[in-house]
User: Fold this.
Amino acid sequence: MIYLASQSPRRRQLLDQLGVRYTLLLPDDADAAEALEAVRPGEAPAAYVRRVTRLKLDDAVRRLRERAWPPAPVLCADTTVALGRDILGKPADAADAAAMLRRLAGATHRVITAVAVQAGDARHEAVSDSRVRFAPLDERDIAAYIAGGEWEGKAGAYAIQGQAAAFVEHISGSHSGIVGLPLFETARLLRQAGVLRDA
Assistant:
């Protein structure tokens, strides 16, 4: 059993795929958790996602101690979308989401997910870096997607496991990493933490 410090239903589904039992270890204040995701000026996307994941894990381990729950490994992850060195986080509103999709249309971007597991005093980390190429999109495509609301709370204003899959011409890398939890890297970390056994 592990603690999953994530509010993402996609990460829960992906852990279910691995057959890992988990208990949610969520923050008391969602706004404070979101504040951890603030981007520093000039920060490179891979460095950003690693830093945010470490901060989230530090916060989760502190919560576990404060709540005096039974000890078990804690897993955290964070995903970001990057176009060049620009980090496209969660859009502020529909107009921001539409602007992001216009930038992604007809271009290749990166989806970077960092994962970290803490078991006792040992910390294990991994990063998945994938490439996604979108087809060209017209304003009708973008407007229809925005109207559906799927963009809300999603880095880069889209979810590849939803309707935005129709925009994707090509991916290179980890599909589960693009969804939000790279299963190959996560399984390796959980084996290092003693949660999973080698096949």
In short: The first helix runs from residue 9 to 18. Residues 51 and 114 are 9 Å apart (CA to CA).
